[in-house]
Fold this sequence. Notes:
Blueprint: E1 2-5, H1 14-34, E2 40-46, E3 49-55, H2 65-78, E4 84-92, E5 95-102, E6 109-113, E7 116-120
Parallel strand pairs: 1-5, 3-4
Antiparallel strand pairs: 2-3, 4-5, 6-7
Amino acid sequence: MTTLEAPAFAAQNTTWDAKANQNHGAAEETQKHSHQPAASSEHKHMQNVSVSISYSSPDDFRVTNEEIEQYIARGRELEPSKDLAWIDLAVEAEDVAIHYGYHAQPFERIRRITGYLVGTL
Length: 121
């Protein structure tokens, strides 16, 4: 499992989003011509946590709300001092890859004033 920090600049990254949308359109076009089933995805918001679920095929087992609640509880248990922001679930058949993201925490800056160390937020 990997613990990731949610980037502060994610909402501002519009150039990358536009390129990703172009590439996504090209991938959909390829899937139409190759007659392979397209992967599906779901987005939910539960307990103040954004949950993204991606399925590798239409035959994958669907993730229930009870399972999502357990994943949220586990994410909060893994890092009790951090605030859980998002969960990304990648489903392939019966396997689920889980990635947790946490809100960035403020840090204390230490600066030197006339020979003394002073901590500020």
